[in-house]
Hints:
single chain, alpha+beta, 8-stranded mixed beta sheet, 3 helices, elongated
Amino acid sequence: MKDKKPMKSVFKEGAITSEFIGNSIYKHQTKTSIGAHNIFLGQVRADDIDGKIVSAIEYTAYEDMANQKFHEIRESAFEKFDLTCMHIYHSLGTVKAGEICLFVFVSSPRRKVVFEALEYIVEAIKADVPVFGKEIFEDESHQWKVNS
């Protein structure tokens, strides 16, 4: 079993930028024990819901509870899979359609592990983390998002 990692906040205000994602990935190029990386980017969709187009989602969370749940998912993934590193970041606040709201990055010595681990982590986040999205439509009306 690997050493437990300290709990840190996974939240970023607003959209997660390509620069932030690139810098997070770049840091791992010098780690020669890594054989594979995998990344999941959750992007806000411009869904058509009953004739209204989503222009943004405003994310809120029970931050302490959500950070604890993210930490538990992280620890569980490290126990279950042979991972070298993992990053999880989720947006809070308003994220426009086309922008990134969830960034999950895993690394391992082996290719197969990163695919299995990433699916496990993303499914656990969707099922267990108290993050809520209010869909904001082009006409500025809104509704609470149903997970999909």
